[in-house]
Structures are given as structure tokens and as C-alpha cells.
Write a structure and sequence with these properties.
Layout lengths: L10 H5 L12 H10 L8 H9 L4 H20 L3
Helix pairs in contact: 3-4
Length: 81
């Protein structure tokens, strides 16, 4: 099993690749994905993880984080929370 990613690092840092700034006339989705890639993965909210995962961005690092969130939330949901 791969070693867990350092959650204080961004996808840009983990991948070792900085995307260029998106064109000014691009969609808000593209701008948002670019911005989210620059934030530490440990600071991303579940809806932000979902956005990145839905766009196939950073999957090797984000899927384990998402599974952890789902695993932690499952007991609360089962109890009606």
C-alpha cells in the first residue's frame, strides 16, 4: 500500500507540476480547479474534493482522503445523522 500523502502539501507540490494560470475567459469551474490544486489537500472540504475527483484531478492523493471522510461519516449516517 502506498504511503499516505503529506496533507500539508498541495496537489501542485505532490505532483511536482504547476499548471499555468487559466485563460482569463475560461469557466469558473476551470478557475476553481486551478485554485484548489494550490491549496494543501488537508484543508480541502468534501465538496472541493468531490469537484477535483469529478474532474479526474489528483486522484492518487485525493481518493484516499475521500475514502477516509466517507469511512468516518458512515457511522453517523447509519445512526440517522
Amino acid at each position: 500500500m502506498p504511503e499516505p500523502a503529506d496533507r500539508s502539501r498541495s496537489l501542485e507540490q505532490l505532483e511536482g507540476q504547476r499548471w499555468p494560470d487559466p485563460p482569463e475567459d475560461t469557466t469558473s469551474m476551470v478557475k476553481n480547479v486551478h485554485e484548489l490544486r494550490r491549496r494543501p489537500i488537508g484543508e480541502l472540504q468534501p465538496h472541493e474534493l468531490a469537484r477535483l475527483i469529478g474532474q479526474d484531478v489528483g486522484l492518487p492523493w485525493l481518493l484516499p482522503v475521500a475514502v477516509e471522510i466517507l469511512r468516518d461519516g458512515a457511522p453517523r449516517q447509519a445512526a440517522g445523522g
